[in-house]
Fold this sequence. Notes:
Blueprint: E1 5-7, H1 11-29, E2 32-36, H2 43-50, E3 60-64, E4 66-69, H3 79-86, E5 98-99, H4 106-112, E6 118-121, E7 143-146, H5 149-155, E8 168-171, H6 174-178, E9 182-188, H7 190-201, E10 219-224
Parallel strand pairs: 1-10, 2-3, 2-6, 3-5, 6-9, 9-10
Antiparallel strand pairs: 4-8, 7-8
Helix pairs in contact: 1-2
The site of 2-amino-2-deoxy-6-O-phosphono-alpha-D-glucopyranose has 14 residues, from helix 5.
Amino acid sequence: MKHKIVRVGSYDQMSRIVAREIEHTVRTYNGANLGLPTGGTSIGMYKELRKLQNFSWENVRTFNLDEYVGIDSNHPESYKNFMNRNLFNHIQIPDSNINFPEDESYDKKISEYGGLDLTILGVGTNGHLAFNEPGSSFDSTTREVLLKEQTIKDNSRFFNSIEEVPTKAISMGLKTIMNSREIILIAQGSKKYDILQTALTGDITEEIPASILQNHPNVIVLYCE
Ligand code: GLP
């Protein structure tokens, strides 16, 4: 299935649209299991989610896509800290509803809770989804992964030096992501546009992890300059 890349006018608009979709899903079902990303692109979406009024997080369960391995959980760039800073510290969500991948039992945990209803994704400049780097199996589930040089370079902007960037992570697998009932991918900037074009209109190949999305029936891809 070929998914269209929906161009939106600005980053703020993209952030509002995706936050509204999350709000709509949670309100419709009186709760939801959300797959949540980290990374610069998602910051505006979290800012919008923090503003929601008369909205209950009580029945929302969050499942983050990934976390660095070998990083102190107090490090500002650990994904736990990113999430606390951008969302969890500002909303009323029970701690027990918040989940991060810690080991391979993550998939079992997600299915025991009924599976992911809506997953928000970013994309790496090399086409990675979560930390599923090029070459990852389409059948992959949650596991420890090695980061590619390109990803380490891209993410070094958040660290004092490139040496500080962890080289390993634990990531939801591509199969885990594909099991989500609905997916929204957000991306900003021309580099992301190019890889998305290739991923969404070219061959479906493990060399471009995001190309697996062509096999999912319910994906929205939002893009802004
Ligand atoms: C990291 C995350 C991905 C995310 C990507 C894009 O590598 N593991 O899940 O999609 O970054 O990040 P950014 O939005 O900062 O470009």
